[in-house]
Design a protein that fits this description.
Radius of gyration: 24 Å
Distance between the termini: 66 Å
Order of helices and strands: HHHHEEEHEEEH
Shape: elongated
Largest sheet: 6 strands, antiparallel
Structural class: alpha+beta
């Protein structure tokens, strides 16, 4: 089944097996091929690619305007990646809410298992609730404070790094704007 499932769409795979005179009792149906193809994940060990590490490190040395990389927690090598960063204008807006008399919460979201390099992206946002006048309902409005790009699935080390960075951003932002 792998020979046909990797090479053809499910409907075509069944016809190719008939063409190649595979006995009917050995032929899976198109649904089986669909399931096979959906579950057909690479069995190769996920790993960093050297060129990617070099390119990413170069990018971090001179990020686009407004992107701030936390040099204190930055790790980029063939065994591990851990980079905290923020978009300063957006972070400044979010940090401003800590100084105002506005009730906000901090939320996190993580995405992993979506790329060849096996990297995780973690976002920390402040989340406030506001009344949507047009739709006459309450909505939440997340404002990203910081992001972390790390190796593998979420780890305690990654969360500790990003929350240290968020704390630093909030304290620094309040000191810069309000002398707090």
């Amino acid at each position: 089944m792998a020979k046909y499932g990797n090479k053809y769409r499910p409907e075509v795979a069944v016809r190719a097996m008939i063409r190649d005179q595979i006995p009917e009792e050995e032929q899976p149906n198109a649904t089986s091929f669909r399931n096979f193809r959906a579950d057909n994940k690479s069995t190769l060990e996920k790993e960093h690619i050297g060129r990617t590490i070099h390119t990413f490190d170069k990018f971090l040395e001179s990020p686009p305007e407004g992107i701030i990389v936390d040099e204190d927690s930055k790790i980029v090598n063939e065994n591990e990646t851990l980079v905290c960063f923020c978009c300063k204008p957006v972070t400044d807006t979010g940090v401003e809410y800590f100084h105002r008399d506005v009730e906000v919460n901090i939320g996190t979201d993580a995405t992993y298992g979506t790329n060849e390099q096996d990297l995780t992206l973690i976002e920390v946002s402040i989340v406030g609730i506001y009344e949507d006048q047009m739709h006459r309902c309450l909505r939440n409005a997340p404002i990203p404070i910081a992001f972390l790009l790390g190796t593998g699935k979420e780890t305690k080390k990654q969360y500790q790094a990003i929350f240290r960075y968020v704390t630093k951003l909030i304290q620094t932002g309040l000191q810069e704007k309000h002398g707090v």
